[in-house]
Amino acid sequence: MADVQVTCINKSSRDNTHEGITHLGGYNWKWTRAEVIKSIEDGTNNFYTLVNGVRANIGVTEGTYGKYLKTYADGQWNDNLLALPECSQ
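Above: the chain sequence. Below: its structure as C-alpha cells.
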C-alpha cells in the first residue's frame, strides 16, 4: 500500500463550504473524489495531507449525501482538506 500526499483540491464552488470536493491532487496526479474513496476502501493507497509538518490521514466517512473524505489528526476528524489550495492540473 502506497502513501500518497494530497496537496490540492477542486470543488464545484470554491467559496461554498457545503459543496463537496470533486478532485484531489498532488505532485503529477489528480483523481476524482470517487477514485480516492475507492482506493482507500480497497486498501490500495493511504492518502494524507502534510501541513506545517503535521500529517493528517484521509479517511472515508458517511454523510447525509453519501460518502465523503475527511482528514484525521490528533485523534479527531477535521476538514483540513478544505484549506488546501486549488489544483491547477
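The mean pLDDT is 87.
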